[in-house]
Specification:
Distance between the termini: 21 Å
CATH architecture: 3-Layer(aba) Sandwich
Number of helices: 6
Bound molecules: glycinamide ribonucleotide
Strand content: 15-25%
Order of helices and strands: EHEHEHEHEHEEH
Length: 198
């Protein structure tokens, strides 16, 4: 790894398909960052197996082993910090984070959310978009701030909502876009950071 390459830690909770899309983009040569580690808060996360097969350092910090959100977040931060990341990537990491954790990574913690923020913060975004009669839906990559799904948007991807869509067909159409969006957004962040430091 080149000494000046952007170091990334990816946090997942399950399937990890967004994490895979980032690793695949690196392997394909379209994203120039180093994934220092993948960390899951769930022991059985499918994404962990993929990361291990890719030779990426993989860790589990099981939130069930902690009495409080604060204790979990403190241990998680300690694990993350051993890799000195330039960017911490939340990729389907389904945990509410404490303000202390978020502030510790101010400006370098990013998330992907399955809606066109500021619309549909929180859960069940696809069903809510259908119920609201939206003609367009999508996904957003944003910087994380202490307020849930509220940080500045880095990049968005849009899809049409079709007349016969249900939450799962719409989710699949959005997810396909997410897999292009997340590597693109990381690329944008890295490029902007490089420009700022040039
Ligand atoms: C993705 O659709 C992501 O946008 C969403 O969870 C899914 C994770 O899939 N994230 C959120 O809802 C965060 N609020 P993945 O594990 O296959 O990447």
């Amino acid at each position: 790894m080149a000494a000046n390459k952007t170091n990334v830690v990816i946090l997942i909770s399950g399937r990890g398909s967004n994490m895979k899309s980032i690793v695949n983009a690196i392997n394909a040569g379209s994203l120039d960052v180093n994934v220092a580690a993948v960390i899951s808060n769930r022991p059985g996360a499918a994404g962990i197996e993929f990361a291990q097969k890719q030779g990426i350092q993989s860790l589990v910090v099981d939130h069930k082993n902690f009495d409080s959100r604060e204790q979990f977040d403190q241990t998680l931060a300690k694990e993350i910090d051993q890799f000195s990341p330039d960017i911490v990537v939340l990729a389907g990491f389904m945990r509410i984070l404490t303000p202390e954790f978020v502030n510790h990574y101010a400006g370098k913690l990013i998330n992907i959310h399955p809606s066109l923020l500021p619309k549909f913060k929180g859960l069940n975004t696809h069903q809510r978009a259908i119920d609201a009669g939206e003609k367009e839906h999508g996904a957003s990559v944003h910087l994380v701030t202490p307020e849930l799904d509220n940080g500045p948007v880095i990049l968005q991807a849009r899809v049409p909502v079709l007349q016969d869509d249900d939450a799962s067909t719409l989710a699949a159409r959005v997810l396909e876009q997410e897999h292009q969006l997340y590597p693109d957004a990381i690329n944008k962040l890295v490029t902007e950071k490089l420009t700022q430091t040039a």
